[in-house]
Every structure is written in structure tokens, then in C-alpha cells.
Specification:
This protein has one domain: Sandwich (Immunoglobulin-like). The chain is built from 4 helices and 10 strands, in the order αβββααββββββαβ.
Length: about 230
């Protein structure tokens, strides 16, 4: 009798394990930089429910998004997403810089509760511009290719001055402190580089549009369901 009960329990456990495994979904995400002269910093990717979003257009950027948009670090935004519990099924960062014309690929496993994908990375050299998909629906089968725009976090003035731009091209400050004169105060669609001259008293090289300007979209993203 005991062996029968034990066998039944093991069978139920195995059935539950198979059901849990079947409820897992695996996605391959490819990100291609389609700009002429902008490089992407490490790229954050998250699979999540409809209760999660990286930002809202026309609203102030979160502190975590500000760090990504001005300095390229995905760590604070990753920590925020992980604190959302079951609303976030998977989150990862592709750690390498992504130059123009290059593609980076990541594979993520999540539960069926994750219905959306968000991804973001800073554009360098810029003051506070980032590319993003914000809560894009995951394909239930096959694959989909979508184009992502550049957004301005509105947390730093777009002076195009290397003194205020991080990364290998400029090596300037990665994050401005507090409220900055000239920042817009809300997230909006990025509008490229402009012809700017050095301001009186300003130090540092002012970058010009010829090499670093862009027009949206800036990234091509392919989302493929593997399982």
C-alpha cells in the first residue's frame, strides 16, 4: 500500500515537473545597430508582464533610467526589474559595446506569464539618448522583426560636449548630479545632433552632426521564439 502511494506521489510530481517545464518559453533576441556613427552601450533585455514598463513618454525619467541614459550602466534598472517579482520573468544584459552595423544576440527563458519584451541601451557619444523597445508584445510562435527608436531621457542638456559624454570617444562625465540647467525634464523621441558652437566659458570638444547624427529608427530587433 505504501509503495503504491509512493509511486502515485512520484508520478504526480513528475507530471507537475513536466507541466512546469512546458510552461517555460525560450526566446532569442537579436539587436542590430543601424546607425552610422553611434555605438550602443551594454544592452538590457527584459521579458515581463503588462504591469512593467521602462518609461512613459512625456513623463520624467526614473533615476534608474537616468543612469542608463547618461552613463550606460544597466545595473540600477536591472535591480529595479528584479524587484518586480513574478511580473518579470527574465532580465539580462549583453555586456559588450555594439558598434554601427554589428549585431548582438541573447537567449532568455521565461514563464508564459511574460507577454512583453523591453530592451534599452545608451547611444554614445550622446548626453542622454538611448534606444529602446518599451513593452513590445512577444510572438507566441515564430519570429518578428521590429525597429526601435532613440529616445532622450530629458535629464541632461544636449550640449554635445565631450566633457559631459562618457565612453571611448569622449571619456567625459557619465552621470550629471541633481537638476541640470537646460534639461527637458521628460522623456521624448530623440531628434539627433545639431550644429552647435562652444558656449562661453565651456571646456571640451563640441561634437558635430556630420559623423554622429542619426534619424530614427536606430536599431533593428529580431525576437524569435525557440520553444
Amino acid at each position: 500500500m505504501k509503495s503504491t502511494a509512493l509511486g502515485l506521489a512520484l508520478a504526480l510530481f513528475a507530471t507537475g515537473a513536466l507541466a512546469d517545464d512546458a510552461a517555460r518559453a525560450v526566446y532569442e533576441v537579436s539587436i542590430t545597430n543601424i546607425t552610422k556613427g553611434q555605438t550602443f552601450t551594454p544592452q538590457l533585455i527584459a521579458l515581463h508582464s503588462d504591469s512593467v514598463a521602462l518609461f512613459q513618454l512625456g513623463a520624467p525619467a526614473s533615476d534608474e533610467l537616468e543612469v542608463l541614459a547618461e552613463g550606460g550602466s544597466t545595473a540600477p534598472l536591472t535591480d529595479f526589474l528584479k524587484k518586480q517579482g513574478r511580473n518579470v520573468g527574465a532580465v539580462t544584459t549583453i555586456g559588450a559595446l555594439l558598434p554601427p552595423g554589428a549585431t548582438a544576440v541573447a537567449t532568455l527563458e521565461t514563464s508564459e506569464k511574460s507577454e512583453f519584451l523591453s530592451t534599452a541601451g545608451m547611444l554614445i557619444p550622446t548626453n542622454d539618448t538611448f534606444f529602446a523597445l518599451n513593452s513590445y508584445p512577444l510572438p507566441r510562435r515564430g519570429s518578428v522583426t521590429v525597429f526601435a527608436q532613440a529616445y532622450d531621457a530629458g535629464t541632461e542638456a544636449n550640449d554635445q560636449n565631450c566633457a559631459n559624454i562618457p565612453g571611448p570617444r569622449c571619456g567625459g562625465a557619465g552621470l550629471s548630479a541633481g537638476v541640470n540647467a537646460g534639461d527637458e525634464g521628460f522623456v521624448y523621441v530623440g531628434n539627433g545632433f545639431h550644429e552647435l558652437g562652444a558656449r562661453d566659458g565651456a571646456t571640451g570638444e563640441v561634437l558635430q552632426p556630420l559623423q554622429y547624427d542619426w534619424r530614427n529608427p536606430v536599431a533593428m530587433i529580431r525576437i524569435k521564439r525557440l520553444r
